[in-house]
Amino acid sequence: MICFTSKTLSATLGVMFLSAALTVPAMAAESLHHVHGLAYSADGKQLLIPAHYGIAVYANGRWNKMPGPDHDYMGFSVTREYFYSSGHPAQGANLVNPLGLIRSRDMGRSWDKLGLEGEADFHLLATGYGSNAVYVFNPHPNSRMKGSGIYATVNQGLSWRRAEAKGLDGEPMALAVHPTDNQVVAAATQTGGFISSDGGSSFRSLLKGRQTLAMFFDHDGTNLWVSAYAGKPLLSRMDWKTGKQTAVALPPLERDAVAYVAQNPVDRGEYAIATFERSVFISKDRGKSWRQIADRGQAR
């Protein structure tokens, strides 16, 4: 077990992101080995957790597995119309590894190739819920991206634009895209949280001197949820235009921190969080109280 301290958290988060696992009793024990995201389905009825072998689904108080290929989904993100992801194909799928950018029109049952298969595995990928804009952090050059950095596509991967990212301090650990304005993107780094209103060309600081772990825009685009760590895990809801913050009380998180935040698009008072240590919680009252549905990888 890794003990989180202000000195060790930054060194361990990358390892934990790759090694986090969720064991779902309603599924075969070997079906999930990692937690690579968190999102609600567009109808608000299902909470989705992409993992090493397919997508776990929590609905009606039970865990199950989403029908569809058992890919190792990385950078999973959901919009009103589509699922987007990257990662590695399931064994026997007869697909090129890595998957590049892929999109599903039918809730993960089948996937379309949007390019860069065999070239790119985007661990950091975020989408605009209503715009379908896709932002990624690309660590290595490929045929459409000349170097590392933040890239965006607004036409389903046909073309990509590199963001200059002036003012961004540090390499992104998480990205978030405004639900309707594809020019507004947020980035979390080890030095703080940053926001851009010009498609990533320039960023301004929202949160200074605090390791920022995750960011998520509400579906109405007003608030930005920010997960951070400063001796202890922190979660806040921020008006990204003014910088005004409201602290959100967290459930007890011993040696842990929030890795993902999601909002139910239908019941907008409902939120979910997933942690680096594979615990998952749901709140029905905008984060005032939380109910645990997975405890360090074990379903509850």
Protein model, in words:
With 300 residues, this protein is mainly beta. The longest helix is centred in the first third of the chain and has 11 residues. It has a single domain, classed as YVTN repeat-like/Quinoprotein amine dehydrogenase (Methylamine Dehydrogenase, Chain H). It contains one helix and 25 strands. The radius of gyration is 18 Å and the shape is globular. The strands form six sheets. A five-stranded antiparallel beta sheet has the order 21-22-23-24-25, with no helix packed on it. A four-stranded antiparallel beta sheet has the order 1-2-3-4, with no helix packed on it. The N terminus is likely disordered. The two termini are 21 Å apart. Helix content is 4%, strand content 39%.
Write the element-wise H/E pattern from the N-terminal end onward.
HEEEEEEEEEEEEEEEEEEEEEEEEE
Helix content: under 10%
Chain-averaged pLDDT: 89
Q: What does the main sheet amount to?
A: 5 strands, antiparallel
Which shape, going by the Cα principal axes?
globular
Describe the strand arrangement of the main beta sheet, using strand numbers.
21-22-23-24-25
| CATH topology group | Methylamine Dehydrogenase, Chain H
**CATH hierarchy: architecture:** 7 Propeller
CATH C-level category: Mainly Beta
Q: Which helices and strands appear, and what pairs or packs with what?
A:
Blueprint: H1 9-19, E1 39-40, E2 47-51, E3 54-59, E4 62-65, E5 72-78, E6 83-88, E7 102-104, E8 112-113, E9 124-127, E10 134-138, E11 149-153, E12 161-162, E13 174-177, E14 185-189, E15 192-196, E16 204-208, E17 211-217, E18 223-229, E19 233-239, E20 245-247, E21 258-263, E22 271-275, E23 280-283, E24 291-295, E25 298-299
Antiparallel strand pairs: 1-2, 2-3, 3-4, 5-6, 6-7, 7-8, 9-10, 10-11, 11-12, 13-14, 14-15, 15-16, 17-18, 18-19, 19-20, 21-22, 22-23, 23-24, 24-25
